[in-house]
Amino acid sequence: MKKNLILSGIALLALLASCGKPGDPSVNPGNDGPKEQPSGNVPTVTLTADASFDQAFLAKATLTLSEVSASDINVKLGNATVQDGKSRVPADYSKSVTIPAGEKSLQIDLEADVMGLKEGDYQFALKINSAEGATVGDPSVAYINLSYVFLPEVNLYSDSQFASTCKATLTATIAKAHDKDIIVRLELDPASQAQVSFAKEVTIPAGETSADTEVTVTVPAGLAAGTYPVIIGIASVENGRVGVSPKATINLNYPFSALVTIDGEFDDWKDALEWATPSGADYQGIRTLKLAGTPKKLYIYFEIVEPSPDDFDMFPMPIDIFLDSDGNYDTGGKLGSIDNDHQVPPYVDSGLSWYIEVANVHLGKDDYIDFTSGAYKYNGKDKDGIFSKLENQTGNYTSNEIFGTGTLGEDGIGRIEVQLDRTYFEIVGEQARVGIKLMNGNNNWSCYGLTPVGSGSNKVDMALINLPAYEAN
User: Fold this and answer.
1) Which pLDDT score is estimated for 29?
2) Residues 97, 98, 103, 105: what is their CA dihedral angle, to the nearest 10 degrees?
């Protein structure tokens, strides 16, 4: 009986041993099994590399250990002598590297320095100078070849935004003319947010340094106001190589901003973003507002309905220009009243950075427009009333910072255009809001015109413009 029990116990132990332990590869077939464990021996390190540099003048070298180590292996690298009959090309790489404990190899990036290089065949030689924690084995030197043919670097540049015609220009350039045609193949980056059409291949002719191509954007019906980037990149280059600026971004700023000049001529405003005064609005003295912008300037155009002096005396006729420099209602001062007689806000909301007063904009008498004084900067707390802390900046600006001009038409409409410097007025983001109030200076400064304005007494938002990326003067 005792002998049978002993035999049964031995059989049970054998059965358990044959089943293995949890985590063993035999129990979990999907397990890759344990990594190679350090043996405690001193490993040997060797060096190999790509046979040649690629078209971008890049190559990789590999340090390999004969077995993994329980501690980091620190390897010092250096330049070696190239093979007989070869000309040396310099290269950049890390001179000191570490193979982490438990790892068996490490890749090293190298870049050939071809600056000023003549066309021809070259070689770079890399060697192991020393290894801390390992023995240097064979091979310890690697040779990387380079067949160098001069290929001009091609870079892309473009207009910053699409014009109101939905067109923009993309330019492929090289630094110096080449003796062969350079064919640049283009592709649309998946991160683009608008649909465009453009030539997929552009040729820089031999002897030339650039070539332009037209890009056309499609504006879908009902597109919300905003900025939609289009990114076009270089897919490949024939007889050249991709330069340091391989992509260009063209923004669709919608609605479009017109490119205008403040010169008393108004044809260039025809495609600008517009807010028309609706019939039935409480304040009809300003009949339209238009906005446009460039990386450096914000432009404002508005039309006033000139009153007849025979009907009532409105001299002087001041205006206020309300400017929200960052387009954010939560920053800046709040407008609390339409005028002295109407203690209600003129807009749904406001967050003004600047309050610009023009003493007399009236064109019906002496064609008088005065922008020489009255630009007030708000330096109060966010959401406090606008008059809580306005600071007059008169003397701190010139016509370079704010300038306006206008004419009185035979139809009795005064047409005025204004230029604001984005640097001075801190319009450094990609949005701004504008409002304008026209007043009767001889009647308690009562509101005579307001833009933008809703029908009847309905309030609307201030006019929002999306601007191209800011550039300092």
Assistant:
1) 44
2) 20
